Amino acid sequence: MIKKSFLVFLFFAVQQIFSQSFKDYKWETLSCNGEPVARHEAAFVEVDSKFYLLGGRRIQEVSVFDPNNNLWTSGAKPPIEIHHFQGVSYKKKIYIVGAHTGKYPYETPLPQAYVYDPAKDLWMKGFAIPKDRVRASTTANVYKDKLYIAGGIIDGHWDGHVKWFDVYDFKTGKWKKLPDAPRARDHATSVICNDKLYLLGGRISSGKIKKVFHLTIAEIDVYDFKTETWSTLDTSIPRQRAGCTSICIDNKIIFTGGETSKEKKANGELDVLDTKTGAWSKLPSLVQGRHGTQLIWHKKKLYIASGCSKRGGSTELTSIEAFSFDK
């Protein structure tokens, strides 16, 4: 059991991190032995202190990164093309739920989860998604032995945007419909911070009306697990974008990456939301802006890898960057 004194120490250590001035800090592109497969609309997930790049357009092998020696190695290919999802880990396995397969712009949402076991380098078909709730480009988070998926789109990048919010109980193997989110969105990110789920960024991808990248969303919607209700924050994201990623450190949400209709290059700014005060601040920007990947927080360092450097599907990246909060 974790001692209270350690938790107090950890709280003040994290607070100290965010009270520092970072003007002399910067992201570093890591020099590695080997490199990952270039990909985007994929997951970047930690299990047992190793990082896993999974999925992405085309059928891609898993790329495994060891931060202890900056070594990339290869894992198994999934049985099917899987992309446009937010990967999560649970009990040392990686779950892919709410993913697309197929080609733009009429991608097909997968009707079940896929599971990757890093210890065995093995892919498996997972549990089914209720037929009337199948969609993709959702967000996904694990909280207290349950998986929560929010939003998404039914017909690729074309049409069928939903506000749906559902939970899967790993222990019982059952799904439950929860109250709809305040607004539909796809290509978004969500993060759990202090018993609340924050839904940030994203858009309404509407190929049907020729506005795939245009209809980005500024509002931040919040689900309170204690009251089981949604609300919308008074503050909005500083710059609207989709294909973004977020992570929670203590009571701070770090939000980065993404693409818009207005800028050809992917976003690289790091915006930090203090969930206690509602105030925004900034950390140094990425070396390379990117969209379609995830952040990892490991041993007081942020990591990001893969993704695309430009709006749409180009150019796919193989670089990995790290930002250390220690000097």
Folded structure, characterized:
- The longest helix is centred in the N-terminal third of the chain and has 16 residues, at 4-19.
- Helices cover 5% and strands 39% of the residues.
- The chain is mainly beta and 327 residues long.
- It is globular.
- The protein contains one helix and 28 strands.
- A four-stranded antiparallel β-sheet has the order 1-28-27-26, with no helix packed on it. Strands 2-3-4-5 form a four-stranded antiparallel β-sheet, with no helix packed on it. It has a four-stranded antiparallel β-sheet with strand order 6-7-10-11, with no helix packed on it.
- A hairpin with a 2-residue loop joins β12 (139-143) and β13 (146-150).
- It has one helix spanning 4-19, and strands spanning 28-29, 42-47, 50-55, 63-66, 71-74, 88-90, 93-96, 100-101, 108-109, 112-117, 122-128, 139-143, 146-150, 153-155, 159-161, 165-169, 174-178, 189-192, 196-200, 219-224, 229-236, 245-249, 252-256, 270-274, 280-283, 295-298, 301-305, 320-324.
- It has one domain (23-324): Neuraminidase.
